[in-house]
Amino acid sequence: MSTNKILSVNNLSTQFVLPDGTLKAVDGVSFDVHQGQTVGIIGESGCGKSVTAQSIMRIVPKPGHISAGSIEFTKSDRHTTDLVGLEKDGKTIRSIRGGKISMIFQEPLTSLSPVHTVGDQIMEMILLHNTKDKHEAKDIAIDMLDRVGMSNPQLRFDELPHQLSGGMRQRAMIAMALSCKPSMLIADEPTTALDVTVQAQIIELLQDLKEQLGMAIMYITHDLGVICEIADVVHVMYLGKIVESASTKELFHNPLHPYTQRLLASIPKLGASGKGTKLDAIRGNVPVPLNLPPQCGFQSRCNEIIENVCDLKVPGLVDMGNEHYVRCFLHSEEQEKTYA
Ligand SMILES: Nc1ncnc2c1ncn2[C@@H]1O[C@H](COP(=O)(O)OP(=O)(O)OP(=O)(O)O)[C@@H](O)[C@H]1O
Ligand code: SF4
Ligand SMILES: [Mg+2]
Fold first, then answer.
1. Whole-model pTM above 0.70?
2. DSSP string computed for 266-317
3. N or C: more exposed end of the chain, with fewer CB within 10 A?
């Protein structure tokens, strides 16, 4: 794998200013994405995964805004731009969005218009970013529909999204997202709404296209099984922060944060009946990140809480070596100092 860094997110914070206070959806997040790498982002609902992606694409909806940090994107000419510094809907971000960094969603109709044919929508993207020649754009669009496994791509080209099955719509969205050969694809729960067989096909397709196009993927999900299969490195998010980062192998073999350990324990295992069973779902819910006191965000759900430590201070990210980082007082000198 190449070690060329294409994205560097540094201390990113994104907030929503609401009548009840400031909701810290993303709170000091840092991570890198290298060319050809698959970076997994996991965490329960409300942990800030999608807002992190929206921040990179600069599509955070109002009343949200990026309040701190930088998102450095390096183009193929090695020129680096801080996406945070760009005008929100200006020319530069519009040329990067879709052209250099693309995004796919759980619901294809988020990016596909229901009233335009699949082919016209893919062509529009190509004409915007790639070529001005309509015949060439059509050829590229049909080739892309073929690559994503659409049967009879010429026919599909003229169909409306609602004429396609859920799995085929997902493939059409992938074709549109990849039609300009972006250097990075952000996939936000792209298979959650699909049945298991179609989900497996789409994941295999993304893996194939990643190899063919040499792009990086940032894959967001709460499905650890999927992450285990496709990601090179994993960042576990909880309450707007990264609480653990490691290579996928290291994270699955040696999870250190109590949250990661509980997530892993909650992976459905195949029982004797052949049906998946939830072993150990985590009690309680992710709190709303509004007016939070200075303490560990996981303390209300943690079985290993250290009194007068975890409830009084916010743990920092501790470097455990071997590119493994964890945000927990069980692994920091703070605890040792307190008990010394
Ligand atoms: N448009 C918005 N306005 C106000 N709050 C928002 C908005 N979008 C997200 N949030 C809040 O920001 C926090 C992070 O949300 P986010 O959508 O990033 O979670 P997520 O990890 O993607 O969850 P899920 O797995 O359900 O998609 C949550 O507390 C959420 O309620
Ligand atoms: S810092 Fe304390 S409360 Fe937070 S996860 Fe670690 S042990 Fe649990
Ligand atoms: Mg989300």
1. yes
2. TSPEE-TTSSEE---PPSS-PPP-BS--SS-TTGGG-TT--TTTTTTSPPPP
3. C
Amino acid at residue number 81:
T
Residue 80 structure tokens: 């680096």
pLDDT digits (tens, 9 = 90+) for 124-140: 999 998 888 999 999 99
Residue nearest to atom 7 of ligand 2 (CA): 305
pLDDT tens, position by position, 83-113? 999 998 899 999 999 899 999 998 888 889 9
Residues with CB under 6 A from ligand 1: 16, 23, 25, 43, 45-51, 61, 64, 222, 288-289
Closest-CA residue, ligand 1 atom 19, reads: 46
Locate 282 and state its tokens.
């985590």
**DSSP assignment of 111-157:** TS-TTS-HHHHHHHHHHHHT-S-HHHHHHHHHHHHHHTT-SSHHHHH
Task: Taking residues 262-271, report their average pLDDT.
Answer: 76
Question: Which string of b and e fits 208-218 if b means at least 16 CB within 10 Å?
Answer: ebbeeeebbbb
Instruction: Give residues with Cβ within 8 angstroms of 81, minimum separation 6.
Output: 72, 73, 75, 92, 96
Q: Which residues lie closer than 8 Å to 238 by C-beta, 6 or more apart?
A: 43, 44, 47, 259, 286, 297, 298
Per the prediction, the chain carries an average pLDDT of 91
